[in-house]
Write a structure and sequence with these properties.
eight-stranded antiparallel β-sheet; 197 residues
């Protein structure tokens, strides 16, 4: 299957299902954004044990433009199950991060207002048992959380839910996930460094 490469040292790319549009984020830019998601056009990575964070720290970071309520930016889960999952979605007028435990109990935390007209940086992380969200390098919300999100059957889906529904209608750029939580100063610097790209 065609794959979009993982540019980290892990080298574990995402399979391309259908046709996902890749467009420069601005005229002359080297950075591309992904869009055109649908039930048949999305990115998927089969089970990857690097994403079994358990109750430890993790971080999801990237740039978002547009989108509508009720749509999935990315999710790591098993189709048909709400247990041991995490991700980002647009809902309730916000872009939100979520985590669910082994009983499907879900905690949701807001990152920024929905449908940003221009690219904006979103960061969703857990550090020492606390979820944190950042918009454009600035801390927005915190919420205590120690849910175990390890799941040895989960796949990662970008642009759609695990059920291949609720396709994201906006654009995503520079999406990455890590098993560490950058500091507030590091996030602010990443924002400043990337906004010019």
């Amino acid at each position: 299957r065609l794959a979009d490469p993982d540019r980290s040292v892990n080298g574990k790319g995402l399979g391309v299902h259908g046709t996902v549009t890749k467009t420069a984020v601005a005229t002359g830019a080297d950075v591309v954004a992904y869009s055109g998601f649908s039930s048949s056009n999305y990115l998927e990575q089969p089970y990857n044990d690097d994403l079994d964070f358990g109750t430890n720290d993790f971080c999801v970071m990237g740039w978002v433009k547009g989108g509508l309520d009720g749509h999935t930016l990315l999710t790591r889960q098993v189709e048909g199950s709400n247990n041991n999952r995490f991700g980002l979605y647009a809902g309730g007028g916000d872009i939100r991060g979520f985590v669910s435990n082994g009983s499907g109990q879900t905690q949701v935390i807001s990152i920024m207002e929905d449908t940003p007209p221009n690219f904006r940086q979103v960061v969703f992380l857990r550090r020492s048992g606390v979820l944190e969200t950042y918009a454009d390098g600035v801390l927005v919300n915190t919420l205590a959380n120690t849910y175990d999100i390890a799941n040895t059957s989960a796949s990662m889906f970008v642009g759609v839910s695990a059920q291949k529904t609720n396709a994201f209608t906006g654009s995503l750029a520079l999406i990455r996930i890590s098993a560490t939580a950058p500091t507030a100063d590091q996030i602010a610097k990443i924002y400043e460094d990337e906004k010019v790209l």
